[in-house]
Amino acid sequence: MYKPATIKDIAIALNLSPSTVSRALRDGYEISAGTKKIVTDYANSINYQSNPNALSLKNKRSFSIGIVVPELANSFFSQAIAGIESVAYESGYHTIITQTHDSSTRERTNANHLANRSVDGLLISMSSGTTDYTFLKTLHKNGLPIVFFDRIIDEIETFKVTSANFTGSYNATQSLIKSGRKRIAVLANAPQLSITNERLAGYKKALEDNKMPYNADLIRWCYKGGNDYQEVENAVISLLALTDQPDAIFITSDRISISCIRALKSLNADPNTMAVTGFSNSDVVDLLQPNFCYVRQKAFEMGQIAMQMLLKLIESKYPITEFETRVIDTEYHGMEKEN
Protein backbone atom coordinates (compact mmCIF):
# COMPACT_ATOMS: atom_id res chain seq x y z
CA MET A 1 0.00 0.00 0.00
CA TYR A 2 1.28 3.45 -0.93
CA LYS A 3 2.42 5.47 2.07
CA PRO A 4 3.10 9.15 1.43
CA ALA A 5 6.27 10.70 2.83
CA THR A 6 5.91 12.77 6.00
CA ILE A 7 7.80 15.62 7.63
CA LYS A 8 9.11 13.07 10.13
CA ASP A 9 10.54 10.95 7.28
CA ILE A 10 12.39 13.98 5.89
CA ALA A 11 13.67 14.91 9.35
CA ILE A 12 15.11 11.41 9.90
CA ALA A 13 16.71 11.31 6.45
CA LEU A 14 18.38 14.71 6.88
CA ASN A 15 19.15 14.38 10.59
CA LEU A 16 17.06 17.46 11.40
CA SER A 17 14.24 18.05 13.85
CA PRO A 18 10.65 17.82 12.47
CA SER A 19 10.04 21.43 13.53
CA THR A 20 13.04 22.62 11.50
CA VAL A 21 11.81 20.72 8.44
CA SER A 22 8.31 22.13 8.88
CA ARG A 23 9.56 25.70 9.13
CA ALA A 24 11.89 25.22 6.16
CA LEU A 25 9.03 23.96 3.99
CA ARG A 26 6.93 26.95 5.06
CA ASP A 27 9.85 29.29 4.16
CA GLY A 28 10.20 30.40 7.78
CA TYR A 29 12.41 33.42 8.28
CA GLU A 30 14.30 31.77 11.15
CA ILE A 31 15.70 29.00 8.90
CA SER A 32 18.84 29.67 6.86
CA ALA A 33 18.69 29.70 3.06
CA GLY A 34 21.10 26.74 2.92
CA THR A 35 18.95 24.57 5.17
CA LYS A 36 15.81 25.55 3.24
CA LYS A 37 17.44 24.44 -0.01
CA ILE A 38 18.57 21.11 1.44
CA VAL A 39 15.07 20.41 2.79
CA THR A 40 13.11 21.51 -0.27
CA ASP A 41 15.44 19.69 -2.69
CA TYR A 42 15.06 16.46 -0.73
CA ALA A 43 11.29 16.94 -0.39
CA ASN A 44 11.00 17.38 -4.16
CA SER A 45 13.15 14.33 -4.82
CA ILE A 46 10.80 12.08 -2.84
CA ASN A 47 7.65 13.82 -4.17
CA TYR A 48 6.63 15.05 -0.73
CA GLN A 49 3.15 16.63 -0.57
CA SER A 50 1.84 18.53 2.42
CA ASN A 51 -1.11 16.96 4.22
CA PRO A 52 -4.15 19.16 3.50
CA ASN A 53 -6.15 17.55 6.30
CA ALA A 54 -3.48 18.41 8.85
CA LEU A 55 -3.25 21.95 7.53
CA SER A 56 -7.01 22.40 7.63
CA LEU A 57 -7.17 21.21 11.24
CA LYS A 58 -4.40 23.59 12.24
CA ASN A 59 -5.57 26.61 10.25
CA LYS A 60 -9.31 25.83 10.35
CA ARG A 61 -9.27 26.03 6.56
CA SER A 62 -9.75 23.34 3.93
CA PHE A 63 -8.10 25.26 1.06
CA SER A 64 -10.96 24.17 -1.17
CA ILE A 65 -13.45 26.32 -3.06
CA GLY A 66 -16.97 25.31 -4.03
CA ILE A 67 -18.24 26.28 -7.49
CA VAL A 68 -21.90 26.11 -8.45
CA VAL A 69 -22.85 26.71 -12.11
CA PRO A 70 -25.90 25.88 -14.21
CA GLU A 71 -24.06 23.68 -16.73
CA LEU A 72 -20.49 22.52 -17.29
CA ALA A 73 -21.05 21.86 -21.00
CA ASN A 74 -21.89 25.53 -21.53
CA SER A 75 -18.91 27.24 -23.22
CA PHE A 76 -19.20 30.35 -21.07
CA PHE A 77 -19.13 28.46 -17.77
CA SER A 78 -16.30 26.13 -18.80
CA GLN A 79 -14.21 29.19 -19.70
CA ALA A 80 -15.15 30.96 -16.45
CA ILE A 81 -14.17 27.87 -14.42
CA ALA A 82 -10.80 27.82 -16.21
CA GLY A 83 -10.29 31.40 -15.05
CA ILE A 84 -11.29 30.52 -11.49
CA GLU A 85 -8.93 27.56 -11.35
CA SER A 86 -6.00 29.56 -12.77
CA VAL A 87 -6.14 31.85 -9.72
CA ALA A 88 -7.13 29.16 -7.21
CA TYR A 89 -4.24 26.87 -8.16
CA GLU A 90 -1.65 29.63 -7.92
CA SER A 91 -3.02 30.54 -4.48
CA GLY A 92 -2.90 26.99 -3.13
CA TYR A 93 -6.62 26.20 -3.35
CA HIS A 94 -8.47 23.29 -4.91
CA THR A 95 -11.89 23.53 -6.52
CA ILE A 96 -14.99 21.36 -6.18
CA ILE A 97 -17.28 21.93 -9.16
CA THR A 98 -21.01 21.18 -9.24
CA GLN A 99 -23.74 21.88 -11.78
CA THR A 100 -27.44 22.55 -11.25
CA HIS A 101 -28.89 22.06 -14.74
CA ASP A 102 -30.87 25.21 -13.88
CA SER A 103 -32.74 23.36 -11.13
CA SER A 104 -33.42 25.23 -7.88
CA THR A 105 -33.51 21.94 -5.96
CA ARG A 106 -30.11 20.87 -7.23
CA GLU A 107 -28.70 24.30 -6.56
CA ARG A 108 -29.82 24.26 -2.93
CA THR A 109 -28.57 20.68 -2.47
CA ASN A 110 -25.19 21.40 -4.08
CA ALA A 111 -24.59 24.61 -2.11
CA ASN A 112 -25.48 22.97 1.21
CA HIS A 113 -23.36 19.91 0.40
CA LEU A 114 -20.33 22.07 -0.36
CA ALA A 115 -20.83 24.06 2.83
CA ASN A 116 -21.05 20.81 4.84
CA ARG A 117 -17.77 19.71 3.27
CA SER A 118 -16.24 22.80 4.85
CA VAL A 119 -15.22 24.64 1.69
CA ASP A 120 -13.58 27.97 2.49
CA GLY A 121 -15.88 29.85 0.15
CA LEU A 122 -18.49 29.56 -2.59
CA LEU A 123 -18.55 30.91 -6.15
CA ILE A 124 -22.02 30.73 -7.67
CA SER A 125 -23.86 31.69 -10.84
CA MET A 126 -27.57 31.41 -10.17
CA SER A 127 -29.86 28.78 -11.62
CA SER A 128 -32.69 30.03 -13.82
CA GLY A 129 -35.09 27.95 -11.71
CA THR A 130 -34.32 29.68 -8.39
CA THR A 131 -36.57 32.41 -7.02
CA ASP A 132 -36.15 31.78 -3.28
CA TYR A 133 -32.66 32.68 -2.02
CA THR A 134 -33.22 31.77 1.64
CA PHE A 135 -30.70 28.91 1.60
CA LEU A 136 -27.94 31.22 0.36
CA LYS A 137 -28.87 33.93 2.85
CA THR A 138 -28.57 31.34 5.63
CA LEU A 139 -25.15 30.15 4.47
CA HIS A 140 -23.97 33.75 4.15
CA LYS A 141 -25.35 34.70 7.56
CA ASN A 142 -23.54 31.70 9.09
CA GLY A 143 -20.23 33.04 7.82
CA LEU A 144 -19.63 31.29 4.49
CA PRO A 145 -17.86 33.69 2.06
CA ILE A 146 -19.91 33.87 -1.16
CA VAL A 147 -19.16 35.64 -4.43
CA PHE A 148 -21.63 35.78 -7.32
CA PHE A 149 -20.54 35.85 -10.95
CA ASP A 150 -22.45 36.40 -14.21
CA ARG A 151 -25.94 35.67 -12.81
CA ILE A 152 -25.97 37.79 -9.67
CA ILE A 153 -28.64 38.72 -7.11
CA ASP A 154 -29.32 41.85 -5.04
CA GLU A 155 -30.52 39.99 -1.95
CA ILE A 156 -27.05 39.30 -0.53
CA GLU A 157 -24.46 42.02 0.07
CA THR A 158 -21.10 40.69 -1.11
CA PHE A 159 -18.67 40.91 -4.02
CA LYS A 160 -20.14 40.31 -7.49
CA VAL A 161 -18.86 40.31 -11.06
CA THR A 162 -20.90 40.30 -14.25
CA SER A 163 -20.83 41.43 -17.88
CA ALA A 164 -21.96 44.69 -19.46
CA ASN A 165 -25.19 42.97 -20.46
CA PHE A 166 -27.15 46.14 -21.25
CA THR A 167 -24.47 47.51 -23.58
CA GLY A 168 -23.87 44.15 -25.26
CA SER A 169 -27.58 43.71 -25.99
CA TYR A 170 -27.96 47.32 -27.12
CA ASN A 171 -25.09 46.99 -29.62
CA ALA A 172 -26.37 43.66 -30.95
CA THR A 173 -29.89 45.00 -31.45
CA GLN A 174 -28.55 48.18 -33.07
CA SER A 175 -26.62 46.02 -35.53
CA LEU A 176 -29.79 44.17 -36.50
CA ILE A 177 -31.65 47.44 -36.97
CA LYS A 178 -28.86 48.95 -39.09
CA SER A 179 -28.93 45.86 -41.30
CA GLY A 180 -32.57 46.66 -42.08
CA ARG A 181 -34.43 44.36 -39.68
CA LYS A 182 -37.83 45.67 -38.61
CA ARG A 183 -39.40 42.95 -36.44
CA ILE A 184 -36.83 41.64 -34.00
CA ALA A 185 -37.99 38.78 -31.77
CA VAL A 186 -36.31 37.73 -28.52
CA LEU A 187 -35.57 34.34 -27.03
CA ALA A 188 -35.01 35.16 -23.36
CA ASN A 189 -33.88 33.20 -20.35
CA ALA A 190 -35.94 33.07 -17.14
CA PRO A 191 -37.28 36.56 -16.30
CA GLN A 192 -35.97 36.65 -12.71
CA LEU A 193 -32.32 36.32 -13.76
CA SER A 194 -30.20 39.49 -13.62
CA ILE A 195 -28.73 38.82 -17.06
CA THR A 196 -32.18 38.47 -18.62
CA ASN A 197 -33.43 41.79 -17.29
CA GLU A 198 -30.28 43.68 -18.26
CA ARG A 199 -30.16 42.21 -21.77
CA LEU A 200 -33.84 42.79 -22.39
CA ALA A 201 -33.42 46.39 -21.22
CA GLY A 202 -30.62 46.90 -23.77
CA TYR A 203 -32.84 45.50 -26.51
CA LYS A 204 -35.72 47.80 -25.56
CA LYS A 205 -33.46 50.85 -25.44
CA ALA A 206 -32.15 50.16 -28.95
CA LEU A 207 -35.72 49.94 -30.25
CA GLU A 208 -36.62 53.17 -28.47
CA ASP A 209 -33.61 55.06 -29.84
CA ASN A 210 -34.60 54.00 -33.35
CA LYS A 211 -38.28 54.91 -32.79
CA MET A 212 -39.33 51.29 -33.18
CA PRO A 213 -42.17 49.92 -31.02
CA TYR A 214 -41.62 47.28 -28.34
CA ASN A 215 -43.92 44.32 -29.03
CA ALA A 216 -44.39 41.81 -26.19
CA ASP A 217 -45.79 39.32 -28.73
CA LEU A 218 -42.25 38.91 -30.09
CA ILE A 219 -40.81 37.80 -26.73
CA ARG A 220 -40.47 34.09 -25.93
CA TRP A 221 -39.27 32.88 -22.51
CA CYS A 222 -37.00 29.84 -22.26
CA TYR A 223 -37.25 29.07 -18.56
CA LYS A 224 -34.81 26.16 -18.74
CA GLY A 225 -32.10 28.27 -20.33
CA GLY A 226 -31.70 26.18 -23.46
CA ASN A 227 -31.12 22.94 -21.55
CA ASP A 228 -34.47 21.70 -22.85
CA TYR A 229 -34.10 21.75 -26.64
CA GLN A 230 -37.82 21.15 -27.18
CA GLU A 231 -38.67 24.29 -25.21
CA VAL A 232 -36.49 26.36 -27.55
CA GLU A 233 -37.77 24.66 -30.68
CA ASN A 234 -41.37 25.28 -29.61
CA ALA A 235 -40.54 28.95 -29.06
CA VAL A 236 -39.03 29.20 -32.56
CA ILE A 237 -42.00 27.41 -34.11
CA SER A 238 -44.42 29.83 -32.45
CA LEU A 239 -42.46 32.81 -33.80
CA LEU A 240 -42.40 31.40 -37.33
CA ALA A 241 -46.15 30.78 -37.10
CA LEU A 242 -46.94 34.45 -36.50
CA THR A 243 -48.92 36.10 -39.28
CA ASP A 244 -46.43 38.96 -39.29
CA GLN A 245 -43.31 36.86 -38.94
CA PRO A 246 -40.16 38.35 -37.37
CA ASP A 247 -37.18 38.95 -39.64
CA ALA A 248 -34.60 38.59 -36.84
CA ILE A 249 -34.13 36.87 -33.49
CA PHE A 250 -32.05 38.24 -30.63
CA ILE A 251 -31.04 35.56 -28.10
CA THR A 252 -30.10 36.39 -24.52
CA SER A 253 -27.93 33.39 -23.54
CA ASP A 254 -25.25 31.06 -24.86
CA ARG A 255 -27.10 27.75 -24.57
CA ILE A 256 -30.31 29.14 -26.07
CA SER A 257 -28.30 30.47 -29.03
CA ILE A 258 -27.01 27.01 -29.92
CA SER A 259 -30.47 25.43 -29.51
CA CYS A 260 -32.09 28.18 -31.60
CA ILE A 261 -29.65 27.70 -34.49
CA ARG A 262 -30.27 23.96 -34.34
CA ALA A 263 -34.05 24.52 -34.39
CA LEU A 264 -33.91 26.94 -37.34
CA LYS A 265 -31.90 24.40 -39.35
CA SER A 266 -34.30 21.61 -38.40
CA LEU A 267 -37.25 23.75 -39.51
CA ASN A 268 -35.48 24.72 -42.76
CA ALA A 269 -35.75 28.42 -41.97
CA ASP A 270 -34.09 30.62 -44.60
CA PRO A 271 -30.99 32.24 -43.03
CA ASN A 272 -31.23 35.06 -45.59
CA THR A 273 -34.64 36.13 -44.31
CA MET A 274 -34.13 35.36 -40.61
CA ALA A 275 -31.12 37.06 -39.06
CA VAL A 276 -29.88 35.69 -35.73
CA THR A 277 -27.87 37.51 -33.09
CA GLY A 278 -27.19 36.43 -29.54
CA PHE A 279 -24.86 35.92 -26.62
CA SER A 280 -22.43 33.06 -27.24
CA ASN A 281 -18.96 31.99 -26.13
CA SER A 282 -18.97 28.84 -28.24
CA ASP A 283 -15.87 28.32 -30.40
CA VAL A 284 -17.90 26.46 -33.03
CA VAL A 285 -20.82 28.86 -33.41
CA ASP A 286 -19.42 30.21 -36.70
CA LEU A 287 -19.43 26.68 -38.11
CA LEU A 288 -23.04 26.11 -37.07
CA GLN A 289 -24.27 29.41 -38.51
CA PRO A 290 -21.72 31.22 -40.73
CA ASN A 291 -23.56 34.57 -40.63
CA PHE A 292 -24.31 34.40 -36.91
CA CYS A 293 -23.47 37.67 -35.15
CA TYR A 294 -22.84 37.37 -31.45
CA VAL A 295 -21.92 39.03 -28.18
CA ARG A 296 -18.96 37.35 -26.50
CA GLN A 297 -18.38 37.62 -22.76
CA LYS A 298 -14.90 37.71 -21.22
CA ALA A 299 -15.59 34.53 -19.29
CA PHE A 300 -12.01 33.61 -18.34
CA GLU A 301 -11.37 37.11 -16.99
CA MET A 302 -14.66 37.02 -15.08
CA GLY A 303 -13.64 33.75 -13.43
CA GLN A 304 -10.28 35.19 -12.42
CA ILE A 305 -11.86 38.30 -10.89
CA ALA A 306 -14.50 36.25 -9.04
CA MET A 307 -11.80 34.05 -7.48
CA GLN A 308 -9.69 37.08 -6.51
CA MET A 309 -12.75 38.59 -4.82
CA LEU A 310 -13.40 35.37 -2.91
CA LEU A 311 -9.78 35.18 -1.75
CA LYS A 312 -10.12 38.72 -0.45
CA LEU A 313 -13.09 37.60 1.68
CA ILE A 314 -11.41 34.40 2.87
CA GLU A 315 -8.00 35.78 3.71
CA SER A 316 -8.93 39.17 5.14
CA LYS A 317 -7.96 39.49 8.81
CA TYR A 318 -10.80 41.94 9.41
CA PRO A 319 -14.50 41.89 8.44
CA ILE A 320 -15.15 43.46 5.03
CA THR A 321 -18.07 45.87 4.98
CA GLU A 322 -17.67 47.56 1.59
CA PHE A 323 -18.31 45.46 -1.49
CA GLU A 324 -17.88 45.98 -5.21
CA THR A 325 -19.85 44.82 -8.24
CA ARG A 326 -17.51 44.65 -11.22
CA VAL A 327 -18.93 44.98 -14.72
CA ILE A 328 -16.77 43.62 -17.56
CA ASP A 329 -17.09 44.83 -21.14
CA THR A 330 -18.38 42.44 -23.80
CA GLU A 331 -17.16 42.02 -27.38
CA TYR A 332 -19.53 42.18 -30.35
CA HIS A 333 -18.72 40.07 -33.40
CA GLY A 334 -21.01 40.86 -36.31
CA MET A 335 -21.66 42.39 -39.69
CA GLU A 336 -23.84 45.29 -40.66
CA LYS A 337 -25.43 45.12 -44.09
CA GLU A 338 -28.08 47.22 -45.70
CA ASN A 339 -30.78 45.06 -47.24
Give keywords.
single chain; 339 residues; alpha/beta; Rossmann fold; 3 domains; six-stranded parallel sheet; six-stranded mixed sheet; 13 helices; 12 strands
Description:
With 339 residues, this protein is an alpha/beta fold. It folds into three domains: 7-50, no CATH class; 59-163 and 299-328, Rossmann fold (3-Layer(aba) Sandwich), CATH 3.40.50.2300; 165-297, Response regulator (Rossmann fold), CATH 3.40.50. Helices cover 44% and strands 15% of the residues. It contains 13 helices and twelve strands. Strands 2-1-3-4-5-11 form a six-stranded parallel beta sheet, with helices on both faces. A six-stranded mixed beta sheet has the order 7-6-8-9-10-12, with helices on both faces. Helix 5 crosses helix 13 (299-315). The longest helix is centred in the last third of the chain and has 17 residues, at 299-315. The chain is elongated. The termini are far apart. The model has no long low-confidence stretch (mean pLDDT 88).
Question: How would you briefly describe this protein structure?
Answer:
With 339 residues, this protein is α/β, with parallel strands linked by helices.
CATH topology of the largest domain: Rossmann fold
Give the CATH class of the largest domain.
Alpha Beta
| Overall number of domains | 3
Q: Name the strands of the widest sheet in spatial order.
A: 2-1-3-4-5-11
Looking at CATH, the homologous superfamily of the largest domain is Response regulator
| Termini Cα gap | 72 Å
The radius of gyration over CA amounts to 25 Å
Q: Roughly what is the average pLDDT, rounded to an integer?
A: 88
Q: What is the overall number of helices? A: 13
In sequence order, what are the helices and strands, one letter per element? HHHHEHEHEHEEHEHEHEHEHEHEE
Looking at the overall shape, the CATH architecture of the largest domain is 3-Layer(aba) Sandwich
What is the molecular shape?
elongated
